[in-house]
Design a protein that fits this description.
- This protein has seven helices and six strands.
- The chain is of the alpha+beta class.
- The protein has two domains: 1-104; 113-294, Muramoyl-pentapeptide Carboxypeptidase, domain 2.
- The radius of gyration is 52 Å and the shape is rod-shaped.
- The structure holds zinc ion (ZN).
- Zinc ion binds next to β4.
């Protein structure tokens, strides 16, 4: 074989080689494309499936959320009911407390008495205690007062002493019997004039154990002229702070002026009467009764 032949063969195989190279490239590109297409299809399928799952999940989620909202609404409703109920329970407990307290307080203590309405002759206070000797006008006579009122009364007299005012008690609790005897005494003294209900309108108040007749040196046991004493002025300015009021003040429409006769009505009511410049007997009984529950506060 000569050089000429070799060149011929060589020149013939160049196009064959090109064709082969082209074929190989096409085949590999085709494969790559097929491969990508397959992957693409599979991903597309996966995406659809995921989208479907997501759709279901979203639907579930919105259902759960709506259920949650409903439950929350119900919960709020129940919570409100519980709150209202406990509020009612609180109110009832408070009412029961007030009623219980009231049931232990003698309703007569704030009763208005008159010529037609007075205490039953068998009435006896819940408890009576002796007033300290130093405050009695006559130290030898035991004087009793309603047990729950004694400390208010003695505090008042003790504070008056601090202001250099010495006040003494002539009379406090008086039983029906004592009162009758006294009335007979008045009858003897004043004749039939004493017969108009009683010589002392404060009769019922003394039988309650919450009223006191007060005096000072210079006035003594017959009580006349007490309104002109420093003690009377002091009581007018201070007695309400201890729960005491004058039952029959000057110019009252019920009975003669009794400057010595003071009745315990509790601090709340006494303060109200003092502040409004009113008399106990001028108030409505219903209005007075509102103060019964706090009489010993
Ligand atoms: Zn009196």
């Amino acid at each position: 074989m000569n050089l000429k032949d070799l060149t011929k063969i060589f020149s013939m195989s160049v196009p064959v080689g090109l064709v082969m190279v082209f074929f190989l490239i096409s085949a590999s590109l085709g494969y790559a494309y097929w491969n990508l297409q397959t992957q693409y299809d599979s991903l597309k399928e996966e995406k659809a499936s995921l989208e479907k799952t997501l759709g279901v999940k979203e639907e579930n989620l919105s259902q759960v959320e709506s259920e949650k909202a409903t439950l929350e609404g119900e919960l709020m409703g129940e919570k409100q009911k519980v709150e209202e109920f406990s509020e009612q329970v609180g109110e009832i407990a408070e009412t029961v407390g007030v009623l219980d307290k009231l049931s232990k307080i003698d309703p007569e203590l704030l009763q208005k008495y008159s010529k037609v309405f007075f205490l039953n002759e068998h009435y006896i206070p819940q408890g009576l205690s002796s007033i300290k000797t130093e405050y009695r006008w006559n130290e030898e006579n035991d004087i009793q007062i309603h047990s729950s009122v004694r400390s208010y009364f003695q505090d008042m007299l003790s504070d008056a002493v601090d202001d250099e005012i010495n006040i003494y008690v002539v009379s406090a609790y008086r039983s029906f019997g004592t009162q009758s005897a006294l009335k007979s005494g008045y009858k003897v003294l004043y004749g039939s004039g004493a017969n108009q209900f009683s010589a002392d309108q404060g009769y019922s108040e003394h039988q309650l154990g919450t009223a006191v007749d007060l005096t000072v040196v210079g006035v003594g046991a017959n009580l006349t002229g007490f309104e002109n004493t420093e003690a009377y002025t002091w009581l007018q300015e201070n007695a309400y702070k201890y729960g005491f009021v004058l039952s029959y003040p000057k110019g009252n429409g019920y009975y003669v002026f009794e400057p010595w006769h003071w009745r315990f009505v509790g601090k709340d009511l006494a303060i109200k009467l003092h502040r409004e410049d009113k008399n106990f007997y001028d108030l409505d009984q219903r209005q007075i009764d509102e103060y019964l529950v706090s009489i010993f506060d």
